[in-house]
Q: What sequence folds into this?
């Protein structure tokens, strides 16, 4: 189990001692997930948090017509869960599945809370990433309300430059809130301008 990426991610915000690092690593479970397989199903109780080591996951909600609305992509070095379901201990409103064959380090909410008591600095770390996630969601909502589809696509390209070629156009369209046909037209217009 390669843990260097998750430790680098944590070290951006806090410093763990050798003993704390060993304790943190002891709760991690290495998991592989095949493309299109779910890490979390809608209506399932949210009990775990995942850190993506390899591949890419996505979280999405499905409306009454069966249309998927993608909330997040989580490529390598990203965290993913249904935070609302995790905190409220309610069934998930989201599905989280692998966009590609993926590898993750996973741990339970129960273990996380136990570690918060043992190592308050880990609670500080997760507060930081939760706040950053909240701010990103807030900014994405503002972008959705105030930017054109083309501007939202440009923003997506800047945020996830390594995913443009890895993701199906249908999923990118869902993330920015347009149809695949509209995205295709937008991309064509962008190419003409360049």
A:
């Amino acid at each position: 189990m390669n843990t260097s990426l998750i430790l680098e991610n944590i070290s951006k915000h806090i410093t763990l001692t050798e003993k704390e690092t060993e304790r943190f690593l002891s709760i991690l479970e290495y998991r592989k997930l095949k493309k299109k397989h779910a890490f979390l199903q809608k209506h399932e109780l949210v009990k775990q948090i995942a850190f993506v080591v390899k591949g890419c996951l996505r979280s999405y909600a499905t409306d009454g017509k069966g249309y998927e609305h993608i909330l997040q992509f989580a490529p390598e070095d990203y965290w993913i869960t249904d935070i609302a379901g995790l905190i409220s201990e309610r069934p998930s409103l989201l599905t989280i599945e692998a966009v590609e064959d993926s590898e993750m380090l996973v741990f339970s909410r129960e273990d996380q809370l136990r570690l918060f008591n043992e190592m308050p600095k880990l609670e500080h770390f997760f507060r930081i990433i939760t706040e950053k996630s909240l701010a990103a969601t807030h900014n994405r909502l503002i972008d959705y309300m105030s930017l054109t589809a083309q501007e939202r696509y440009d923003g997506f390209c800047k945020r996830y430059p390594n995913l443009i070629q890895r993701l199906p156009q249908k999923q990118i369209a869902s993330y920015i809130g347009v149809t695949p046909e509209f995205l295709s037209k937008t991309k064509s217009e962008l190419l003409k301008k360049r």
Summary: The mean pLDDT is 93. Residues 4-117 form a domain with the Jelly Rolls fold (CATH 2.60.120.10). Residues 120-146 form the longest helix (27 residues).
